[in-house]
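Notebook p. 47: complex prediction with molybdenum atom.
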Amino acid sequence: MLIKKPADIESSEITDQKVYLNRRLFMRGAVLAGSVAATGFVYRKLNPPAAVVAEQPKIAGLITTPSDDAMRKGFKVNEPLTSFEDISNYNNFYEFSTDKLPLAALLKEVDPLSSARYVAFQTLLDPKRMPNQNTSVLDWPYVEGLRLDEAMNPLAILATGLYGGTLPPQDGAPIRLVVPWKYGFKSIKSIVKIALVADQPPTTWNIQAPNEYGFYSNVNPGVDHPRWSQRTEHRIGEFTARNTLLFNGYVEQVGYLYQGMDLKANF
Ligand SMILES: Nc1nc2c(c(=O)[nH]1)N[C@H]1C(S)=C(S)[C@@H](COP(=O)(O)O)O[C@H]1N2
Ligand SMILES: [Mo]
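Predicted complex, structure tokens below:
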């Protein structure tokens, strides 16, 4: 099987780390900038320019308690900022983890029974630390699932890191699924339970809106969401739309999984 190796992927195809980590701010900024008249002001407020590192006095290894004045000025280090060049090129794999294990390796390790046809995943249920679990916006805990052969595909990744560092909480620490050929919600975060099951397991967005979100949720420009087209997509940090690619461009790697299936019926 062919898998895109780091060398096959142009660095221009990888989302810059700064852009990735700030994308919510960015998207908020973009929405407001589009809808509010004072665009420049609002945009600058939500996306302040990068902090300038001021010349710092040498403190020769002394650990001091910061004065109120220093605290007001904010956090600064006696280090030059990492260059944009370094940040955008220090990636060894896609925009994802370097610490990754294909899910397949784990499944082989447990040697599934022949009756196991699906893999079911469950997120941590902890309303104290995840306050929205006190609301009924979704059915908690978040659950997801894959067919066993999908889960065995080397592109179905269990990730514990991002850009060579540990996985930030908001990206699903300590361990999450990454299924690059499916829509984002299949990539369940902060997993606490993985089960091999005989029947197709329930999935959160399918429970929420069964006519809008199917079990498969493969990226497919030819199958529209009932409320919007899937023909084009916007990449984070880009202003112009791109054509959506079938299976997010991984036809060669995952196409065999869906041979002969009606992808409109199995959306
Ligand atoms: N447990 C859990 N996993 C989740 C979600 C969630 O709300 N809870 N959101 C999903 C959605 S809708 C998307 S688009 C991706 C986003 O992952 P990212 O924030 O790391 O890009 O996570 C998915 N995994
Ligand atoms: Mo999403």
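Notes: Residues 123, 142, 171-172, 184-185, 187-190 surround MTE (ligand 1) (CB under 6 Å). The CA atoms of residues 66 and 72 lie 10 Å apart.
Next step: compare against the earlier run before touching the bench.
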